[in-house]
Amino acid sequence: MDNSVLVLGVGPEQGLGVALCKKFAEEGYKVFGCGRSKENMEALKAITTSNGSIEGLVADVTSPEDVKEIFKVLDKSDTLLKSVIYNAGNNNAKPFLEMDLDFFQDLWDVCAKGAFLVSQEAIPRLLKSGGSLLFTGATASIRSRPPFTAFAAAKSAERSLAQGLSKEFGPQGIHVAHVIVDGIIDGDKVNLRFPDFANSKGEDGKLDIDSIAENFLMLHKQKKSTWSFEIDLRPWSENW
Ligand SMILES: NC(=O)c1ccc[n+]([C@@H]2O[C@H](COP(=O)([O-])OP(=O)(O)OC[C@H]3O[C@@H](n4cnc5c(N)ncnc54)[C@H](OP(=O)(O)O)[C@@H]3O)[C@@H](O)[C@H]2O)c1
After folding, report:
1. Does the beta carbon of 35 lie inside 6 Å of ligand 1?
2. Is there an atom of ligand 1 within 6 Å of 187 CB?
3. Predicted pLDDT at 138
4. In this structure, what DSSP letter does residue 74 have?
5. Which domains does the chain have, with CATH numbers?
6. pTM (2 decimals)?
């Protein structure tokens, strides 16, 4: 039976979600990537790796039905689920008095509700395989400042969920860990939307997606005697 990995929140090729899929496939896993965009999932399926394989599933992680469906696909795949990575994110900024409830709720749904729904499906399966449950955090996971107050409320809720799960299920054999990405990822999300800002960061001033993915793999492979709950990653020149 092959070992599998599920990555939720997969977007364009130049993004962390795809880099995570590639990294774990190269390690020999059958990887299932999941994102909202049909186009991105078609592009994901077309990626070939020297080892393992990558599947693309279209789903919205804030929908309980979609999340259940993803795990049904995994159950039918006849693989042993060894890692689930919750990477979905939707950073958006607004001054507090300009945001309405929908704005706040949308951020919270993607970061916190989706993480809850996925964890409830993932944990019973990971209890059988003794695998890992990894979350992608951000600077906002531990620090709130305007105009990112709503995003920080959502990302810190996700981190708290992860920490509670780590304490409850670590002693039952699941390695739950949280990665704080403290800086700008060198991918399409920022490079295309804010090119001047992205260029202003200079050489190695943004987080390289393959290097972030390497750290997720390192966490997944950590020995049981030396588990990290959390690591933070930032470029050398980041002011923090
Ligand atoms: N980009 C940065 O500079 C940065 C910095 C610090 C932390 N982070 C964190 O890093 C992670 C990855 O961010 P990224 O910017 O590099 O993006 P990415 O890995 O390229 O893609 C993440 C994907 O999550 C998807 N997503 C959002 N809501 C979803 C939903 N309801 N269901 C399924 N998928 C959904 C988005 O899909 P759509 O394409 O459909 O929107 C997006 O493409 C996020 O957790 C983010 O908070 C990013």
Report:
1. yes
2. yes
3. 98
4. H
5. 2-233 (3.40.50.720)
6. 0.98
